[in-house]
Specification:
- This protein has about 210 residues and is of the alpha+beta class.
- The chain contains seven helices and five strands; from the N terminus they run ααβααβαβββαα.
- The protein has one domain: Beta Polymerase, domain 2.
- About 55% of the residues lie in helices and about 20% in strands.
- The chain binds ligand 0O2.
- Ligand 0O2 binds near residues 115 and 122.
Length: about 210
Amino acid sequence: EAARLIRGPGSELRRFLSVYYFGLQEMLTKVEILREELRLEDDDCPIEHVGSRLKSFESLTAKVARKGLPLELDAVRESVLDVAGIRVVCSFVSDVYLVADMLTRQPDVEVLETKDYIAVPKANGYKSLHLIVRTPVHLSTGPVWVPVELQLRTVAMDSWASLEHKVFYKWDRDVPAELRAELLEAAHIADRLDATMQRLHREVRATAP
Ligand code: 0O2
């Protein structure tokens, strides 16, 4: 999908998006190397799966409109920091912070913004750790630091978020109150699952032969 977007028509947009595509590849490589290394050390890898996307042109223009910005590439460059996005799904809540720390300790990864929706969930029940980081991409003209949004969450949080996302768009952002309440209850169930899995994980680590 990302590769298709940068080959599309419109060279200015193509150049604009290509820089995010390169930033995405750089950051993705860091995540994949970390994942491989941790997997080699221990079969019990804290990263379950990794996804990535370049924001679609439709989603980008909708966000620009929501923020009341002009549809100009300079304004978008300054104000939309999630054009490139990576989702890292981890086994346990503690792994989310462990992996975030391992990635952001790298000298060429600079944290621009942190939103910890695990510590302070959104009112609808959404939980994830969001980081905006930037990393250098070495172009023919020199280095360009590219922002990438990292979303880190557990399997339970991910499963809740993907269902909620579908419901949200199915109802065109206007989800009936009853359904919202059920989604909130489901988020609490996901929390309890995470807490139990975390406790079992600790017990197994402490007692396994
Ligand atoms: P898509 O399709 O993922 O691109 P800001 O960027 O700070 O101006 P924003 O975009 O609200 O404001 O930032 P935030 O809160 O960090 O959320 C950005 C992304 O997090 C969203 O991207 C979703 O992927 C995810 N997200 C945030 N809140 C929710 C939620 O309540 N439910 C679900 N399922 N996902 C959420 P986009 O831009 O919406 O879309």
